[in-house]
Amino acid sequence: MKHLILFVALCLHYPLAAQTRLRGLGSLVIGLTPPDSLNKLEFVEDDQSYVKGTIALPCTHIRSFTASTVLIEGVRVTAISVYFYDDRLFRISCDYSDALKKVFTTKHGQGLARPPYTVRLCSGERGKPMLIEGEVWLRDDVWALAVQSTGYTSNCERENKRRLDIASQRLLALSSDCELRNVDQALIEFDRLEKEKQRLTTHPEKN
User: Fold this and answer.
1) What is the distance between the alpha carbons of residues 139 and 112, in angstroms, rounded to a whole number?
2) Are strands 75-85 and 62-72 parallel, antiparallel or unpaired?
């Protein structure tokens, strides 16, 4: 539900340009692609996801698969994970290379730039923050998010990377109780901070 509230709020603040419908990446179509259509020579199924905070309650309706590299629309896409809810694709996450960015923005236009956030994930050492910058696309139920993260991870390791996340807001909300595999930490932080900012904007009396 929180994802849906954020989606509606962003739509009200930022009118959407007429762009190609956002459905996924290449043959990976949100809401339609089943797991048995994946190339088994490329994708490997991840371990079972569990309800957040538990190790005994499996999310049996969730399946996820990961590939080190796949060819999509003529672009070599790396570190890609795909997530299924009741055997329907609801989320895609991958590296956002310059080549993929060119293909994606040519089709969908530039996203809505969001203000950068500075977070401190490296708790063991001072002076090692992470800067997270994001760009958002909203098309009907589907949300895409490109995040650039520069700084230090929770393991205090230096990071400089870009990730692209495409998801169905409705199915993402339904899966929100589950700890999904291989979700980028910067994406999680960006999403959390965006929802918190929206909460403070919508309900300032609760600050």
Assistant:
1) 12
2) antiparallel
